[in-house]
Specification:
By secondary structure, the protein is of the alpha+beta class. The protein has three helices and five strands. Strand 3 and strand 4 form a beta hairpin.
């Protein structure tokens, strides 16, 4: 029951934050809203991106805790769905991942060879 209440509260908070940032109207406003920007109180960084199917993709980053959360809001129903949450502090420790050649270590080696 406690988990349900916490989930509902989180949903309400996300909806309130999202509704404050969801672009309505002209495309210039929508383009500006898709850029990363500080969230409410400056604690969160958010990105709002409209999708082609009348939904909003919301990405929120908490730089203090280094956690990323992704939500989808249905424009017709207002339903908020949590899609993913990830603590990324360990991701940032990788020198490379899923990269293509030349990899960062290969570039570094080339630069060092030409010094």
């Amino acid at each position: 029951m406690k988990a349900l209440a916490v989930g509902a509260l989180l949903g309400v908070i996300v909806a309130v934050v999202a509704l404050g940032f969801i672009p309505f109207g002209d495309s210039a406003h929508a383009d500006a809203m898709s850029a990363w920007q500080p969230g409410v109180g400056g604690d969160l960084i958010t990105s709002i991106n409209p999708t082609s199917d009348n939904r909003q993709l919301i990405t929120m980053i908490d730089p203090r805790t280094r956690v990323l959360a992704v939500y989808m809001i249905d424009g017709a129903t207002g339903e908020v769905s949590l899609k993913s949450v990830r603590a990324f502090q360990w991701d940032l420790q990788l020198a490379e991942f899923n990269g293509t050649s030349p990899l960062p270590r290969e570039i570094r080696s080339l630069v060092e060879q030409h010094r």
